[in-house]
Automatic annotation (TrEMBL):
The active site is at D404 (4-aspartylphosphate intermediate). Residues 1217-1232 have a biased composition (Basic and acidic residues). This is Phospholipid-transporting ATPase. ATP binds at D404, K405, T406, E507, F548, K570, R604, T684, G685, D686, R802, K808, N831, D832. PANTHER family: PHOSPHOLIPID-TRANSPORTING ATPASE (PTHR24092:SF190), PROBABLE PHOSPHOLIPID-TRANSPORTING ATPASE (PTHR24092). GO terms for cellular component: plasma membrane; trans-Golgi network. Residues 854-1101 form the P-type ATPase C-terminal domain. Mg(2+) binds at D404, T406, D828, D832. It holds the Pfam family E1-E2_ATPase. Residues 112-171 form the P-type ATPase A domain. GO terms for biological process: Golgi organization; phospholipid translocation. GO terms for molecular function: ATP binding; ATP hydrolysis activity; flippase activity; magnesium ion binding; phospholipid transporter activity. It is an enzyme of class 7 (translocase).
Length: 1240
């Protein structure tokens, strides 16, 4: 009998026979059942328990529980650890159960979807999980594709079908798939489909979404299969009534499931620090226990052994009355047992409630992010969403932001803005003298009253271009004819309105521009294109489409009209310039000048050209083209050679300029994040010049920066460029070292009371780095990584252009590891998923490219500008609150636990507890938990408005000064000192104490009650001192916890419960010694803290404290005033000469499909993949520096004397930055407000 199954061999090739389940079953292919859940009813408890005890903390407390069960070593009841441990495990288990139940429901929803399956000659409705490899299934419009299928036939002409792939690649555009003509003849004839007996051989299951290789053998003929004939699971069938497909991959073998991957478990910097601290505390715990063990052994040997009559040893101890042995053996045995007893007693230094509290705080702060209306985007009904609850405080420590460009910084919406035709630039509004004027809301748009196809949302402001069209200028007409004819756009009429579906927003914008100027693309057939020019239809014969690809960076069409053959071409400027006729040299020079002007405005450009073709040349070339297109070997290379031959000696017609609009608020958000000290890297697939121009537009780059461009083709060139640039930066910094040094003394900016160098290891404001993808390939080599990191970290802004998704992840990982810095990646498309998962925190934007980035992210927002509030407000608050919580928590638990240590010297090191066992259990759960939880969930040092207005407040998180090893030692030391005072003042007060009725107060229970009560009052008052933000709720939490403790302890120690501490509370609380001890102890503990803080706030105020003062004075002096954020202007001057090249930001088009005669329904495929081009290499951009910010203002001395007196500062506050623009509609006179200005 076989007790186990042999491991399935690795699949190299898949062999399938249609409708032959017996043959297919021998290969044990996966069925279509999907299981993403982790547990079943039987495995939940053991598996979840095993996972939870893999956490060191849970395992540690389990070991403590086991020790407490042993009566010989435990002085605390076992339930004092069992109850909180069970609570923690239970909460975690419930959370895991809820998550897994949701996964089960989602799995059931997917697995039980219905699909029509061909079985025994009939179509039967079957659930998805019963579909197997080799089945033929039928799908209908708007249905999800059940498995990875080979398309057999469809309802559309020529067996085309249209699918939406948003779940796979994040792209929302429709894509076209086409069946093999031989299988297309099957149609929906069930009898023919039932007899379909093809054999399929194809690649093994893999995660490559864009490639499929296989062959089909049918009727002794072999047919090639590629990705264009495959429908992948997760796609949605659109605009297709029905289609049939053969299942190739099912279930876990589908490309969707192969790409799902495992989400990387992310932990915060504070979590990692906590692990180190807890290890240190555990070592300290062992040392204390070892000390107690040695002390116990000495005490038992010298003292305890002489009093065994009164304190008899246990019967199992050598030397006791029941067991033979000497004193040394007995003392050694007892001391060893005491070691484990003290481990149990001292474990409250790190109680299990710490982990519960941290999770509750994080959950609360996540809700605050979700509920923030200021991050709600009404247009898409999209609020901010914290998709994880474990990373909130990490948002307050971000040092590097890695962002995509298209769709993240920009809207991915293209508009036709300018053009150049026949040596004239159009698009600017000019006055009567020809000087350009600014375009405002009052500027009149060009009207198209005679064009019934004009679009209402089309905006163009230069009337001269329309006049040129109406005047029938030949080159202007040729320009728009190229735009109307040279493309792969699909027209559609919906509700009587002509609509275009383009592969990219760029191409759609160009065809739309031609339409509005009267050159309307109306329809196409496989061999013709119909356009309408000023109401007159013209039909062009479409002879050939020379389609776009990543290498060509251009596309062309060959058309015939009235016997005249023309090649119309559009593409990147450098590609077109290389193929121009020599007659165009003058025109090229003029257009180059215009391209530079367009680039200064951050526009994307391309050039248009044409060429007349002789009929006899066309026949010869067409024969070569046919031979290349039918070649079975190196077809693409042969076609490229043929295309290159005809695309020569072109005549330059003009150029276009398209604007990729920035999202609202992007420049302001980037400027503010940069002022906060965060370094921003742009990682984009777009071309170099376009990326640079967007960098200027969004204020990532400014004109005072010196830009270094790394664009070497070889490893040696890249190495030399980076080395030279790094040397130039070092030389420059040495020259300006005395100017750039930031002095942090004598009234300078401080954090947490200590002078801190804010610009330590941060770049100066003078340098930016731009590096190309091909150069980045060499820079990311192991021997060049260090140079790249040093160069990048020496610059204020970095742009990596033309990078692949893998390179994005590699750059993030490099900085993450080499700098040991907290990183954040933000993007909106499927190509951003890799860097989103790699960074410490991933933020997804729900944009034009689907939800793939959002699904992989930790936080989701609708607009890039909300990142500013997410970090500067919620991130800073979360970090600020968590740091306060941890400092206070360790303080109060050291103060609580170490009282046992001091008591050990008075109880013979016997592991006797000072407190009531119930007090030990309830201290962190009921008596001191609510105030610190309220503080950690809702405390604010400054409100959200000032958090954004003064981004330097973010600096403590960058410096990791809120909570670190030094701060922990300080808190632990304060706790140790507190425990000394808490124990010894009551000890000496109660040592010979007598109650007013003559009873003794010096017993163990009275001392324990007095110390415990003083501890609760002192630590709650200490928490009150840490609160920066007070409401009635905070008062209830603080005073309510103290009152609750006294009420509970009196009730519990009453006679009705018959507890061993019966009457102790009444006896202690009714004595004068206790109240005097309480007052004296709290005064000694809190007064130094108050004095210390008062001194530093008055003499050495931090930036936070100065802004808190400003906040209070502002609210008291001008509550009715309207305050607005005003940032320093970083508008750039048009001093650059780089030009931006439009490089066809889309994939290979529909050229082959259109000319094949198959696409009669005129559908659309659009892709967001950007394929920019390289332009003139530039090694460095030198810009004149901006003038100094002398317009930063200070308040009138007379009106601000009270503020200066309060802060102890006679000058302006450093670290506070604002704009001063009297023309601003919300400008406020500086003499009317308390203003703090920052040295720049």
């Amino acid at each position: 009998m076989q007790f186990w199954k042999s491991e399935k061999p690795v699949e190299i090739e898949r062999d399938i026979k249609s409708s032959d389940p017996e043959y297919n079953a021998q290969f044990e292919y996966a069925n279509n059942y999907i299981c993403t859940s982790k547990y079943t009813v039987l495995t939940f408890l053991p598996k979840n328990g095993f996972e939870q005890f893999q956490r060191i903390a849970n395992f540690y407390f389990l070991c403590l529980l086991i020790l407490q069960v042993i009566p010989q070593i435990s002085s605390l009841p076992w339930y004092t650890t069992l109850l909180p441990l069970a609570f923690v495990l239970g909460i975690s288990a419930i959370k895991d159960l809820v998550d897994d139940v949701q996964r089960h429901r989602n799995d059931a929803l997917v697995n039980n979807r219905q699909s029509w399956v061909l079985r025994d000659g009939k179509l039967v409705e079957e659930r998805w999980h019963k579909v197997v490899v080799g089945d033929i299934i039928k799908m209908e419009n708007n249905q999800f594709v059940a498995a990875d299928l080979m398309l057999l036939s469809t309802s559309e002409p020529h067996s085309l079908c249209y699918i939406e792939t948003a779940e796979l690649d994040g792209e929302t555009n429709l894509k076209v798939r086409q069946a093999i003509p031989e299988t297309a003849e099957l149609g929906d004839d069930i009898s023919q489909l039932s007899r379909f007996d093809a054999a399929i051989k194809c690649e093994a299951p893999n995660n490559n979404l864009s490639k499929f290789e296989g062959t089909m053998t049918w009727h002794n003929q072999k047919y090639s299969l590629d990705n264009e004939k495959i429908l992948l699971r997760g796609c949605i069938l659109r605009n297709t009534q029905w289609c049939y497909g053969l299942v190739i991959f099912a279930g876990k073998d589908t490309k969707l499931m192969m790409n799902s991957g495992k989400t990387v478990f992310k932990r915060t910097h504070i979590d990692r620090l906590m692990n180190l601290i807890i290890i240190g505390i555990f070592i300290l715990l062992l040392l204390m226990c070892l000390t107690m063990t040695i002390s116990c052994g000495i005490w038992e040997t010298l003292v305890g052994s002489k009093y065994t009559v009164y304190l008899p040893w246990e019967s199992f101890v050598p030397g006791s009355a029941d067991k033979a042995g000497n004193v040394e053996e007995g003392a050694t045995t007892i001391s060893l047992l005491v070691f484990f007893s003290y481990i149990i007693i001292f474990n409250t230094v790190v109680p299990i409630s710490l982990y519960v509290s941290v999770e509750m705080i994080r959950l609360a702060n996540s809700f605050l992010i979700n509920w923030d209306n200021k991050m709600y985007y009404e247009k898409t009904n999209m609020p901010a969403k914290a998709r994880t609850t474990t990373l909130n405080e990490e948002l307050g420590q971000i040092e590097y932001i890695f962002t995509d460009k298209t769709g993240t910084l920009t809207q991915n919406i293209m508009t036709f803005n300018k053009c150049s035709i026949n040596g004239k630039a159009y698009g600017d509004v000019v006055d009567e003298y020809g000087n350009p004027m600014d375009i405002t809301e009052a500027t009149a748009k060009v009207e198209f009253p005679d064009n019934p196809y004009a679009e209402e949302n089309f905006e163009f402001f230069d009337q001269r271009l329309l006049d040129a069209v109406q005047n029938n200028e030949p080159l202007v007409h040729d320009f728009f004819k190229i735009l109307a004819l040279c493309h792969t756009v699909m027209p559609e009429v919906k509700d009587g309105v002509l609509e275009y579906q383009a592969q990219s927003p760029d191409e759609g914008a160009l065809v739309s521009a031609a339409r509005n100027f009267g050159f309307v693309f109306k329809s196409r057939t496989p061999t013709t294109i119909t356009i309408e020019i000023n109401g007159k239809e013209e039909v062009y014969d479409l002879l050939c489409i020379l389609d776009f690809n990543n290498v060509r960076k251009r596309m062309s069409v060959v058309v015939r009209k009235n016997g005249k053959l023309q090649l119309l071409c559009k593409g990147a400027d450098n590609v077109i310039f290389e193929r121009l006729d020599k007659k165009c040299d003058d025109a090229k020079e003029i257009i180059t000048h215009h391209l530079n002007e367009f680039a200064n405005d951050g526009l994307r450009t391309l050039c248009l050209a044409s060429k007349d073709i002789p009929e006899d040349y066309w026949k010869t070339w067409n024969a070569k083209h046919h031979e290349a297109s039918t070649s079975m070997e190196n077809r693409d290379d042969k076609l490229s050679e043929v295309y290159e031959e005809i695309e020569q000696d072109l005549m330059l017609i003009g150029s276009t300029a398209i604007e990729d609009k920035l999202q609202d608020g992007v420049p302001e958000a980037i400027a503010n994040l940069a002022r906060a000290g965060i370094k921003i890297w742009v990682l984009t697939g777009d071309k170099q010049e376009t990326a640079i121009n967007i960098g200027y537009s969004c204020r990532l780059l400014t004109d005072e920066m010196e830009i270094f461009i790394v664009d070497g083709e070889t490893e040696q060139e890249v190495k030399k460029q980076m080395t030279d640039f790094l040397k130039a930066i070092k030389d420059h910094k040495e020259e300006r070292n005395h100017e750039e040094t930031v002095h942090m003394q004598n009234g300078g900016v401080t954090f947490n009371g200590s002078a801190t160098e804010l610009n330590m290891e941060t770049p100066g404001p003078d340098f930016a780095l731009v590096i190309n993808g091909h150069s980045l390939y060499h820079a990311l080599r192991e021997d060049q990584e260090a140079t790249l990191v040093e160069l990048g970290c020496s610059c204020k802004a970095i742009i990596c252009c033309r990078v692949t998704p893998l390179q994005k992840a590699m750059v993030v990982d490099l900085i993450k590891k080499s700098q040991n810095s907290i990183t954040l990646s933000i993007g909106d498309g499927a190509n951003d998923v890799s860097m989103i998962k790699t960074a410490h925190i991933g933020v997804g934007i729900s944009g034009q490219e689907g939800m793939q980035a959002v699904l992989a992210s930790d936080y989701a927002i609708a607009q890039f500008r909300y990142l500013e509030r997410l970090l500067l407000v919620h991130g800073r608050w979360s970090y600020f609150r968590m740091c306060k919580f941890l400092k206070y928590f360790f303080y109060k638990n050291f103060a609580f636990t170490l009282c046992h240590l001091w008591f050990a010297f008075f109880c013979g090191f016997s592991a006797q507890t000072l407190y009531d066992p119930y007090f030990v259990s309830f201290y962190n759960v009921f008596y001191t938990s609510i105030p610190i939880l309220i503080l950690a969930c809702f405390d604010q040092d400054v409100d959200d408005y000032y958090s954004v207005r003064y981004p330097k407040l973010y600096t403590p998180g960058l410096l990791d000064s809120g909570f670190n090893k030094k701060v922990f030692v300080f808190s632990a030391t304060e706790g140790i000192i507190t425990s000394l005072i808490l124990f010894f003042i009551p000890y000496f007060a109660f040592q010979n104490g007598v109650h007013y009725d003559g009873t003794d107060l010096s017993d163990h229970q009275s001392l324990g009650c007095a110390v415990a009560s003083t501890l609760v009052v002192a630590v709650n008052l200490r928490c009150a001192l840490d609160m920066s933000y007070w409401t009635a709720f905070h008062h209830v939490a603080i005073w309510g916890s103290i009152i609750y403790y006294f009420c509970f302890i009196v009730a519990m120690y009453a006679s009705s419960f018959n507890y061993t501490y019966e009457g102790v509370a009444y006896q202690v609380f009714s004595s004068a010694q206790f109240w005097f001890t309480l007052l004296l102890t709290c005064t000694i503990l809190l007064l130094p803290i108050i004095a210390y803080r008062f001194y530093y706030i008055d003499v050495h105020p931090t930036l936070t404290e100065r802004i808190r003062l400003k906040q209070r004075l502002t609210k008291s002096k001008s509550r009715s005033k309207d305050f607005h954020i005003r940032r320093a202007s970083t508008l750039r001057r048009s001093t650059r000469s780089l030009r931006s090249g439009y490089a066809f930001a889309h994939q290979e088009g529909f050229g082959e499909l259109i000319t094949s005669g198959l696409n009669m329904r005129q559908r659309v495929e659009k892709s967001e993949q950007k394929n920019p081009v390289e332009l003139t290499k530039v090694s460095k951009i030198d810009s004149a520096p901006l003038p100094s910010y002398n317009d930063l203002y200070v308040e009138n001395n007379n009106s601000n004397s009270a503020s200066n007196a309060a802060t102890g500062d006679s000058g302006p506050t450093e670290g506070v930055e604002e704009n001063h623009n009297p023309s601003h509609p919300h400008y406020h006179d500086p003499d009317r407000h308390v203003v703090f200005c920052e040295k720049l």
